[in-house]
Amino acid sequence: MLSLAKLIDEVINIYTWVVIASAIMSWLVAFGVVNVRNQFIRVIVDLLYRLTEPVLRPLRRVLPNLGGVDISPVILLLGLFFVRNLLWEYVWPALIR
Fold first, then answer.
1. Structural contact between residues 36 and 45, judged by C-beta atoms closer than 8 angstroms
2. Using CB atoms within 10 A of its CB, is residue 19 exposed (0-12), middle (13-18) or buried (19+)?
3. Could you tell me where the DSSP H helices lie in the chain?
4. Per-residue model confidence as pLDDT tens digits over 35-61
5. pTM for this one?
6. 89/97 Cα distance (integer angstroms)
7. 22-28, long-range: CB < 8 A, 24+ apart
């Protein structure tokens, strides 16, 4: 059971970094810093989009429109941090006993 808790913790950690990378990449594309006509960049942008969009899309439907500012990655990160803290607070002590 401890292995499962560690695996869940690590998956949350990796997905957190994927969400951060996706947000940064979207800023770089929006400001024209990276060229999306480059095949490598297009593959990276598509990969990050496919990994994060299924989770961010329902959040965007619920959140109010803030005039072009997308705060759904921030809300997702807060949710991931909350779940990770719950894991540390309730699951870890129960497994160590």
1. yes
2. buried
3. 2-30, 39-62, 72-86, 92-96
4. 999 999 999 999 999 999 999 999 999
5. 0.89
6. 13
7. 22/48, 22/49, 22/51, 22/52, 22/73, 23/73
